[in-house]
Amino acid sequence: MILKGKKGIISGALDESSIAWKVAEGCHEQGAEFTLTNAPMAMRMGKINELGEKCNAEVIGADLTSVDEIENLYKKSLSKMNGRIDFILHSVGMSPNVRKKKKYGDLNYDWLNKTLDVSAISFHKMLQVAEKNNVLNEWSSSVALSYVAAQRTFPFYSDMAEAKSLLESIARSYGYRLGKLNNSRVNTISQSPTITTAGSGISGFQAFFNYAEKMSPLGNATADECANYCIFLFSDMSKKITMQNLFHDGGFSSTGISEDIIEDFN
Ligand code: NAI
Fold first, then answer.
1. Which pLDDT does position 103 carry in this prediction?
2. Mutation test of ligand 1: which of 145, 152, 213 has the most ligand atoms closer than 8 Å to its C-beta?
3. Which atom of ligand 1 is the closest one to the Cα of 92?
4. How far apart are the first and last CA of the chain?
5. CA 147 / ligand 1 centre spacing (Å)
6. What is the pLDDT of residues 20-39, one digit of tens each?
7. What percent of the chain has pLDDT over 70?
8. Ligand 1 binding pocket includes 63 (Cβ within 6 Å)
């Protein structure tokens, strides 16, 4: 029970395949108390209420691009849990350009702004509103989920690559600020390709998933394994880890080529 006594907010659980869903189940098993949040539209379509019942967690709707809705989310969460929080999971991403199959050389710039707002700036908004409203306990831990396309080009990832670069930068900048403020921590986890609603929205995803599996000496990291890493980062076992982008990818990001891939070409 390494999260016993910890309180948090978990965003982005849509259905059982969501990474956030696994994080919520794991946090519950480890003794944490938390609220769940998702965009009101996704709450109608998804199964988040089922998860809420299972984890004894209140579900609070919030579009995380809206400062007002984040304020409401914190207000309700703090009153429900009777005190400030120790952890936040940002597990939110969406690109209208990717969804509507716009090519990288023909981006719709209004949609690019939407991609950045939903997938990256929303993390800044969560942290800024948290700071202004004194929501975070000392040594709190905030984690957002990223992808290696922030460092290296994966053509199918389109403008989500820009969003992930921005997300990782926000984690560094806000990690510094909150560290100075009250020893709070901010990190991103750069996760392997994972079969979820957001993941499989990317064209050629299955082929890439198989490629990454063969490239990584440990194979792709699963959503359950990602949840374990999040739990470790929320716990006091990781107190001095902050402002990092932490690869959780079975070794993919450090591998030039694997023997399995060479075999496929022979
Ligand atoms: P998912 O589709 O289950 O989760 C994405 C969530 O974002 C959904 O619950 C959706 O409702 C929510 N969302 C979208 N717009 C929102 C808004 N305006 N306000 C609040 N919530 C909103 O997919 P998954 O894969 O679990 O994604 C979670 C995170 O993990 C994302 O940041 C994604 O980029 C990241 N990630 C996913 C990988 C994958 O291969 N699936 C790999 C690496 C990172």
1. 95
2. 145
3. 7
4. 49
5. 11
6. 999 999 999 999 999 999 99
7. 99
8. yes
Q: Per residue in 128-150, pLDDT tens?
A: 999 999 999 999 999 999 999 99
112 lines ligand 1 (CB under 6 A): no
Which residues of the chain register pLDDT less than 70? none
CB 44 within 8 A of CB 60: no
Report the distance separating Cα 251 and Cα 244, nearest Å: 17
Compute the distance between CA of residue 248 and CA of residue 201 in angstroms, rounded to an integer: 21
Nearest CA to ligand 1 atom 10: 12
Does the beta carbon of 118 lie inside 6 Å of ligand 1? yes
Length of the chain equals: 266
**Ligand 1 neighbourhood includes 65 CB (under 6 angstroms):** yes
From the CB of 220, is ligand 1 less than 6 Å away?
Answer: no
**Cα dist from 182 to 76, 131, 141, 178, 185, whole Å:** 23, 10, 11, 6, 9
Name all domains of the chain by residue range, CATH numbers in brackets. Answer: 7-265 (3.40.50.720)
Q: How far is 78 from 70, CA to CA, in rounded Å?
A: 12
Query: Is this prediction's pTM over 0.85?
Result: yes
Separation of CA 235 from chain center: 17
